[in-house]
Amino acid sequence: MVIEIYPHIFKNEIPLPNNPLKAINNYIIVSESKNLIIDTGFNTAECLTELMNGLRELNIDLNKTDLLITHMHVDHSGLAHVLKDYGVRVVYFSQIDGEISNQTSQRDVFFKSLNQLLGFQSDFTIKFGKEFGVRRSGTLDFSPLYEGDILVIGDYCFEVVDIPGHTPGHIGLYERQHKLFFCGDHILDEITPNITFWGFEQDILATYFKSLNKVYDYEIDYLFPAHRRIITDHHKRINELLHHHEERLNEILGILKEGRKTPIDVAASMHWDIGHKKWSDFPSSQMWFASGEALSHLECLVHRGLVERTNKDGVLLYGLK
């Protein structure tokens, strides 16, 4: 269903069947000269149908429409190739996430090596069901956006804001005059964005905290997230997210009192609100997401000097200092 949430700004809630995210908020900003679509949904027939139905309902001419992808995850970028084929003029991406998204072979090597670091057995495979869609082969021709770039759509002047954390190159759009912010998965209501491990060269959780505090200082009346409800008190929600992750860090410190553990062992001992009582009941994809988030928190504790990391036969082990 397409609804106008602000003058000339529409939200098309696209269902994501059999996925805990439930739906993605696809935003469409319209004007006489050009339009802007923000995020797409998975590359599935269901998402494509809902997306195109919304565009037709608004009489969107793709030949005068641009597409912005807030970050690389396939629920946001899955249909970018398709929309480019259908005629959108430009696909915008951050330089960082756009390059990672296109570097499929390097990304696959990284994730394969990550499985061993996390502590998964060599025969562990991540099974993504058909609800995640098909990842389109080939590189996406995109135009990179950087902090401070301006996109003008009708009466709106959007500033590009770097908000890394959920991914290394996550971006948002800030409309200063109207106090609007399109934040992708940076800040979500009801659920918390997954903050996973992206390499030892940075403390990605601390990076996420920095991005949250950056947005905290903005004047925002309406924060438009990619999932769940529109947020009208971003200060309150940011404080809740910061508190959530500090609780996570303390939970992990408590788990490590039992002795040194692999990231997957830590994840198996943590509390998760995904509808499965036992770790063994988790789908492989959720095990992987949870273990990646456990690792980002463990690395944050290493950077804080509270935990030490060792490597035993290619598997990471963490323990209290």
From TrEMBL:
Q: Which GO terms describe its molecular function?
A: hydrolase activity
Q: What are the protein's UniProt keywords?
A: Hydrolase
Q: Which domain of life is it from?
A: Bacteria
Q: Does the entry feature the keyword Methyltransferase, yes or no?
A: no
Q: Where would I find the Metallo-beta-lactamase domain in this sequence? A: 23-227
Matching InterPro entries: Metallo-B-lactamas, RibonucZ/Hydroxyglut_hydro, Sec-metab_biosynth-thioest, WH-like_DNA-bd_sf
Its name, as the record gives it, is Zn-dependent hydrolase, glyoxylase
- The species is Desulfosporosinus youngiae DSM 17734
